[in-house]
Amino acid sequence: MTADLPPTGPGPGLRSNPGFDDVELDRRTALHMRTARLVLRTLRPSDADRVSSILSQPDVGRMLGQIHLPYLVDEARRWLESHEEERARGTAYRFGAVLDDRVIGCADIGAIAEQTGELGFWFDPACWGQGYAREAATAVVRFAFAGLEIRRLTATRASDNERSARLLKTLGFRETGQRQAWSHSRRATVTQIAYDLIAPAGPFGLPGAPA
Ligand SMILES: CC(C)(COP(=O)(O)OP(=O)(O)OC[C@H]1O[C@@H](n2cnc3c(N)ncnc32)[C@H](O)[C@@H]1OP(=O)(O)O)[C@@H](O)C(=O)NCCC(=O)NCCS
């Protein structure tokens, strides 16, 4: 899948020295970060069962307009198999959030182009309300600004997604508008609220990170 790429070195848009050393920057190997309570690591095809079981829950899947429900294991595996190529091309970096050796969610930067990327996240409802999504998303935003060449992050949420609204506000995102979009999971048109977050001029809370 990535045979046309050189074997080592940072991927496209990845800083070779982002100023933090707990992130593996080789495009061929897994990304890996630690937060206070979580390990954030590359999701693998072997996580397909778990990913399918989280995303198939209506409270999760209905908020993710790009997926079809039920979200089958084969579909999850195909999505997970695409991550290596996305990393190699520098178009997306997706982190599984792992608590006690169990994947409980995901925070990712997708659609990377021209120093812009899109933040996404989803978590197992069994783990909601404990700050895990906030913890993972905070680390991934820092990774985007300090580890990638991203200057602007965008995000969208369904207008009835209050938990996502609270989280985006906590992260510092500001509303930029709304639009109507088709939700595959709901099989209906929904109102989406758009957000963005501009990279701070200085280091994003990372000791030693470059501006
Ligand atoms: C969006 C989503 C990830 C938010 O999950 P969450 O658990 O509500 O978010 P957080 O991790 O930020 O947790 C915040 C809550 O934890 C509480 N909390 C408890 N302990 C905490 C701690 N140590 N640190 C921070 N917050 C803590 C906060 O007070 C807050 O409570 P509240 O929900 O009553 O206000 C989750 O609802 C989800 O997966 N939804 C479905 C998919 C989805 O909508 N994705 C986004 C599409 S735009």
Helix and strand content put the structural class at alpha+beta
**What strand order characterises the main sheet?**
1-2-3-4-5-6-8-7
Distinct compounds present: coenzyme A
Query: Which CATH-level-2 architecture of the domain at 32-151?
Result: 3-Layer(aba) Sandwich
- Report the average pLDDT across residues: 86
Short description:
Helices cover 26% and strands 29% of the residues. The chain is built from six helices and eight strands, in the order E-E-H-H-H-H-E-E-E-H-E-H-E-E.
Question: Can you characterise this structure?
Answer:
By secondary structure, the protein is an alpha+beta fold. The chain has a domain at 32-151: Aminopeptidase. The protein has 6 helices and 8 strands, in the order ββααααβββαβαββ. It has an 8-stranded mixed beta sheet, sandwiched between helices. Helix 1 (48-55) crosses helix 3. The model is unreliable at 1-10 and 205-211 (pLDDT under 50). The structure holds coenzyme A (COA). Coenzyme A binds at residues 60, 63-64, 121-123, 128-134, 157, 161, 163-164, 166-167.
